[in-house]
Design goal:
UTP diphosphatase activity, about 25% strand, single chain, dTTP/UTP pyrophosphatase, alpha/beta, ITPase-like_fam, Maf-like, Maf protein, EC 3.6.1.9
Length: about 190
């Protein structure tokens, strides 16, 4: 039986795979992302997830490699993880009252069959209008600093969400429905 390798050490992605009962090993990809490439957001997401998957696939001969790269786009502007409280406040003000696209590039590689499938999954997330006090209080929690778009839907940032159109797990960082579909096409059963 082929090992399943998650090319990520993200606690959120690990939790999602645990949630569906998938047995896997998490491995850091070591892949250097370049967010400055001049590509459409969905194309960039696929490109980056493929790079992560390929970096890990080199180390395994008979495995299924799963890699993902998630970010938020606001009218084709990619909103990454803010590095400082000030950047978090700027990003939260920018997304206040807006509808965002959460884009995950998902790549699955079967190393034995030398087969790779890459997809971009997009979920629209509408954020309620945020007041200065709400933004300041949220930034003080420290949560925005390691989240694309400066909020975590699966944590405290959930209170800022007005509406979701699409796959919730995609917003967390790994579109489980699409992953299930890809694995099924590769004749890999989850259950």
């Amino acid at each position: 039986m082929k090992k399943i390798i998650l090319a990520s050490t993200s606690p959120r992605r690990k939790k999602l795979l645990d949630q569906i009962g998938l047995r896997f090993k998490a491995v850091a990809s070591g892949y250097e992302e370049n967010m400055d490439l001049k590509m459409k957001p969905a194309d960039l997401a696929r490109y980056l997830s493929s790079g992560k998957a390929r970096a890990v696939a080199k180390k395994y001969r008979n495995a299924i490699i799963i890699a993902a790269d998630t970010f938020i786009a606001l009218k084709n502007e990619i909103l990454g993880k803010p590095g400082t409280d000030k950047q978090a406040r700027i990003t939260l003000k920018k997304i206040s009252g807006r509808t965002l696209e959460v884009i995950t590039g998902l790549t699955v590689i079967d190393t034995a069959a030398d087969k790779e499938v890459s997809r971009a999954v997009i979920t629209k997330v509408s954020v309620k209008k945020l007041g200065k006090d709400e933004i300041d209080a949220y930034v003080r929690t420290g949560e925005p600093l390691d989240k694309a778009g400066a909020f975590g839907i699966q944590e405290k940032g959930a209170v800022f969400i007005k509406k979701i159109d699409g796959d919730y797990s995609n917003v967390v960082g790994l579109p489980l429905g699409e992953l299930f579909s890809i694995l099924k096409k590769m004749n890999r059963k989850i259950y």
